[in-house]
Write a structure and sequence with these properties.
Helix content is 36%, strand content 15%. It has 322 residues and is α/β, with parallel strands linked by helices. Helix 1 runs parallel beside helix 13 and helix 5 crosses helix 7. The protein is globular and about 75 Å long. The model has no long low-confidence stretch (mean pLDDT 97). It binds (2R)-2,3-dihydroxypropanoic acid (DGY). (2R)-2,3-dihydroxypropanoic acid binds next to loops. This is D-glycerate dehydrogenase. GO terms for molecular function: glyoxylate reductase (NADPH) activity; hydroxypyruvate reductase [NAD(P)H] activity; NAD binding. It comes from Zavarzinia aquatilis. Belongs to the D-isomer specific 2-hydroxyacid dehydrogenase family.
Length: 322
């Protein structure tokens, strides 16, 4: 009977995924708490054929080049793969896989939570309860803004962007988007395409960032971009923290040029600029876009399917990164 493949699993996965992992593989784990240092990941990867990682494990070129020779596949339990130097992996002949689709709805739901939380001043309102400062019901206190009839600009109408658009329409929002190329009619579904980012910004009462982090999109929401938004716009980011220039965003939030922001992701997370914590008009969450039981199990299972296909199946992963 062939021995099960040996893999390094960087994190503890949801229960059903751990049960399956233990049945199908021999497991190695890095020591200590996440985020794991590259040297710990490399030590745990010794003698392995595959790696199962998450967005917290940064696999840069140097780490990929230092991986033991037996590694054949890196499966990330995430749709985003900006934490992996894919070019370096390809140069070593490694397969990289991700987990698209299964987290689309959970992340789109969370994006609407950010939007509503920012528009309806949820952070300030929750503080009234938490700090026992709630006085009488007031006709003039805690007034947010309606989101219906406002224009939602989506930067990146992919799977998650399109799911955000469907939800926003149900709230009565008019949906606009910018992609380099116009989306297929079924994806667009009535959303209005802008062939330039500037065109999108000019009409975005609410700007939702749903683009991947790439060399082209990093820092794309800078001072110049923010100045093109309508006065009092709302910024939503459920994609990646490095799409925005933090100084510019914080300045716009402090001045009121941005009415509010709903942010689930931060450059350098889990550290974040403390001003995001302090500003009353920032509704911030700790990168929980895909954090539902069903979604995390589905993500873990898809990552395992990919490892199994490469290491114990026909060698072809289900969802290789493109
Ligand atoms: C992803 O999958 O890329 C998310 O950011 C983590 O859920």
């Amino acid at each position: 009977m062939p021995q099960p493949p040996v893999i390094m699993v960087a994190r503890t996965l949801p229960g059903p995924c751990e049960v399956r992992l233990a049945h199908e593989f021999v497991l190695r784990r890095p020591p200590g708490e996440a985020p794991h240092a590259p040297r710990d990941l490399l030590a745990a990867a010794e003698g392995c054929e595959g790696l199962l990682v998450t967005v917290s494990e940064k696999l840069d070129r140097a780490t990929i080049e230092a991986l033991p020779p037996g590694i054949r596949v890196i499966a990330t339990m995430s749709v985003g793969f900006d934490h992996i130097d894919v070019a370096a992996a390809r140069a070593r002949g490694l397969i990289v896989t991700n987990t698209p689709d299964v987290l689309t709805d959970a992340t789109a739901d969370l994006t609407l939570l950010l939007l509503l939380g920012a528009a309806r001043r949820a952070k300030e309102a929750m503080a009234l309860i938490a700090e026992n400062r709630w006085g009488a019901w007031s006709p003039t206190a805690m007034l947010g803004v309606d989101i219906g009839r406002r224009r939602l600009g989506i930067l990146g109408l992919g799977r998650i962007g399109a799911a955000v658009a469907r939800r926003a329409r149900a709230f009565g929002m008019e949906v606009h988007y910018h992609n380099r190329r116009r989306a297929a009619p079924a994806v667009e579904d009535g959303a209005i395409w802008h062939d330039t980012l500037d065109g999108l910004l000019a009409v975005s009462d609410v700007l939702a960032l749903n683009a991947a982090s790439t060399p082209e999109t990093r820092g794309i929401i800078d001072r110049r971009a923010l100045a093109l938004l309508p006065e009092g716009a709302i910024l939503i980011n459920s994609a990646r923290g490095d799409l925005v220039d933090d100084e510019a965003v914080i300045e716009a939030l402090e001045s009121g040029r941005l009415l509010a922001a709903g942010l689930d992701v931060f450059r350098g997370e889990p550290k974040l600029d403390p001003r995001y914590r302090d500003l009353p008009n920032v509704f911030a969450l700790p990168h929980i876009g895909s954090a539902t039981v069903e979604t995390r199990v589905a993500m873990g299972m898809l990552a395992i399917d990919n490892l199994a296909a490469v290491l114990a199946g026909d060698g072809r992963p289900l969802t290789p990164v493109t």
